[in-house]
């Protein structure tokens, strides 16, 4: 641990026994020292992620240090009494898992300074088998309690803990888990950080009338509420929970990031602490070496220059909001209020919906982390012809809404959905947050209600797409990436989707002509494919490029064009098993076309980091060029 600028060897490996619910002065002092040490360490190494541009989350793991320190001491005091795993249903609190892995000797301390970096095996959510010392994969928010119920069933003579949060408790999974835990009297102890903060706001304000405690009492759980920063009370409540059979929720009230000047109680505390605030915090806690290390970090940059696209980049996820605001602005106030309802799932800032919230708050609903229910509410609003719900969340969560999408289709609902963070680009949260299975949204029958999937390639096309489809009936799914994308250029160096360009739903587009075959692509894979095409042409290999912005419709004219060419390569960042490429070859064969065919997509677990995800999957320009050369022989 000598290379880590905070002395983690100072951690005091104490043992605690719940038969004595009162801390001695020595135990209390040791716990407080451990809490401060670990909070300093979490601020420091999560801030290295901020300094390197890969982001992260500081507030959640910082908050829950007291309970984790107590659990660690309990596990050490009676290992055979507990399932000694810090199960956590708020996966973004991964810093807790990495720190405990280090303290337990599984992960060298200096590795913590590679937090969320590409190929560091320290992604933004814990992944079993990927990181030394990590004992479970958390997946997305609110998925662990049902799982821990099963762990408790498998270990009937032991106690299983699950760290929770007021945010994760908003997921419907937890309501189901609560009912099962009570009905089966499972020995599951929930330790919930109730800090009244999620990404986009304060639950007490956007979900007025509900509380975690009252909700769980309604499910039949015993509740032990208190101040999470009062170490004596916290320990006594944990002891009582352990000494009482059955499921119990220990609810800890505290402000987000207690004691961090500039973050305490603020929503931004959910995310990674800024370098500035981290330095101020560390210096105020006599951790100068750690502060100095942060000052010296230089963020790595992708210096690759992509051919065929401009040097102007923008985030399509925000452009979606700008385009929607422009369209709504052409409606009267009465018309907007009557015909449009926008329902957020705590991700308005990430999905561009905040632009609508700011411009037209009267049509906007700030809702919680309840993707299924929020989508259905949007669909219900859009059941009447002429009305439509607008819904947004991350693409990784689309899989959670499949049944609700089916019901919306069966009810002929009008829903415009924006699923941002599609694919893998800039996804340091890694595999569980990849938006890979987006084609699942088109899960109806061939004669079913209108459903279209769109993945615009750049900001110009995103605006044009929204202009065309905004008022269309049916289910419309628009995808965008977390990363910024450049404007696609034509052969004259002008914006391909600029000027008088009009988006036509279902129409594929020739970006570059080619005599030796075609690459078919879309979204953020298009500009990478374009770079590969331009470089191949320089090598004398004349490959064309087709943009397919409407993912689930077949442009017969374009199919004939590319089907008669020598080769076709589909390039996407969706799941190679379930993406467009998995069906595109069959669609060619069904029409009697037999070009040499292959498809590239995401096929292995992620590597963390940002742009590094694309070369890791072999879908960067180098990988695309290699695949083309293999097809042409």
Automatic annotation (TrEMBL):
Signal peptide location: none
InterPro entries tied to this protein: PDH/Transketolase (IPR051157), THDP-binding (IPR029061), Transketo_C/PFOR_II (IPR009014), Transketolase-like_Pyr-bd (IPR005475), Transketolase_C (IPR033248), Transketolase_N (IPR005474)
Gene Ontology CC annotation, any one: cytoplasm
Cofactors demanded by this protein: Mn(2+); Mg(2+); thiamine diphosphate
Residue ranges of domain Transketolase-like pyrimidine-binding in the record: 314-487
SMART domains on file: Transket_pyr (SM00861)
Gene3D superfamilies per record: 3.40.50.920, 3.40.50.970
Database matches in SUPFAM superfamilies: Thiamin diphosphate-binding fold (THDP-binding), TK C-terminal domain-like
Family as reported in the entry's similarity comment: Belongs to the transketolase family.
PANTHER family for the chain: PYRUVATE DEHYDROGENASE E1 COMPONENT, TRANSKETOLASE-LIKE PYRIMIDINE-BINDING DOMAIN-CONTAINING PROTEIN
Name of the protein: Transketolase
